């Protein structure tokens, strides 16, 4: 089993995780973090089949949990997860990337295996626009709210920056062409991408790198081995996971401060629970049925199990 995706409930008391078998498990963080927790507290309170293939991405939007699989997006009520509202795509393609919500107009950003980005109107359940420009499978998307921009990265090695108001591509950064980032032995694909104000993190085949978006230039290259599959900004650090059984703690200047051991031998996903101060944890999943839980970033506290 491999865990591909995670998302915390809006209240921060539950964690949803999706695996390669199309299943979603719901864990109670309240029970798992209780002083009286037992082994049973670390098991799902609910498991159900969401898709025929892997659950590539999960996202909590208002009162619903959105899940992406092959050719479909499903919406599940957090209040009553056994009731589902299925949104069928008009054209068949593989939902391959992150789901990201654009807060201003209640839109969902979907990266597709048809090389395009689709903008879904969540209120009406219809697609309202398509962003075309990538020449291969899209792996990751991110939203830069303040600038009304959407960023996307894919198998073609490009990070594209889109003006969400016009649907036009404003900039295209071919990361693998920068000598400081290039790692031909791993390929050119972009597997992780995230933004924070004027900064962008991206990596995959190329080294994980920090970019200044106003100058469109890399400022730090992180000397991590293998391909990184997910990274996030956290206070004055960067947390990253990928090939290898550890969470890397990196400083913004490019230094690797620490690598914290995890249970899975290869990692796909990490999530910080910012929805609840009482249940503020980091969760990490990958090539195992274990999801490691960190109450302190310096060590693993325990593991949830599918």
UniProtKB/TrEMBL annotation:
It holds the Pfam family WD40. The keyword Repeat applies. One of its GO terms (biological process) is mRNA export from nucleus. It comes from the Eukaryota. Signal peptide: none annotated. WD repeats lie at residues 131-172. GO terms for cellular component: THO complex; transcription export complex. Residues 98-175 form the Nucleolar protein 10-like N-terminal domain. Keywords: Repeat, WD repeat. Belongs to the WD repeat THOC6 family. This is THO complex 6.
């Amino acid at each position: 089993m491999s865990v591909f995706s995670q998302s915390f409930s809006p209240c921060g008391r539950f964690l949803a995780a999706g695996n390669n078998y199309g299943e979603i498990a719901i864990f109670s963080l309240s029970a798992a973090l209780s002083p009286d927790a037992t082994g049973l507290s670390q098991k799902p309170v609910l498991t159900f089949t969401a898709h025929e293939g892997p659950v590539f991405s999960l996202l909590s939007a208002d009162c619903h949990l959105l899940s992406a699989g092959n050719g479909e997006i499903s919406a599940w009520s957090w209040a009553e997860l056994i009731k589902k509202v299925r949104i069928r795509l008009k054209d068949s393609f593989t939902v391959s990337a992150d789901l990201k919500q654009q807060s201003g107009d209640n839109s969902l950003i979907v990266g597709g295996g048809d090389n395009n980005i689709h903008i879904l109107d969540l209120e009406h359940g219809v697609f309202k626009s398509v962003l075309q420009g990538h020449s291969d499978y899209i792996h990751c998307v991110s939203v830069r709210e303040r600038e009304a921009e959407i960023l996307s990265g894919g198998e073609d090695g490009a990070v594209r920056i889109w003006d969400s108001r016009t649907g036009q591509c404003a900039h295209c950064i071919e990361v693998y062409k920068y000598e400081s980032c290039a790692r031909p032995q791993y390929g050119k694909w972009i597997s992780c991408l995230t933004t924070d104000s004027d900064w962008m993190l991206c990596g995959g085949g190329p080294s994980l790198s920090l970019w200044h978006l106003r100058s469109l230039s890399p400022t730090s290259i992180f000397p991590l081995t293998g391909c990184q599959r997910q990274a996030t900004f956290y206070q004055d650090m960067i947390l990253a996971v990928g090939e290898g059984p550890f969470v890397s703690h990196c400083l913004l200047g490019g230094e690797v401060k620490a690598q914290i051991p995890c249970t899975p031998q290869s990692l796909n996903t990490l999530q910080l629970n910012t929805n609840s101060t009482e249940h503020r944890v980091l969760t990490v999943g990958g090539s195992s049925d274990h999801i490691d839980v960190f109450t302190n970033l310096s060590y693993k506290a325990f593991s949830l199990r599918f």
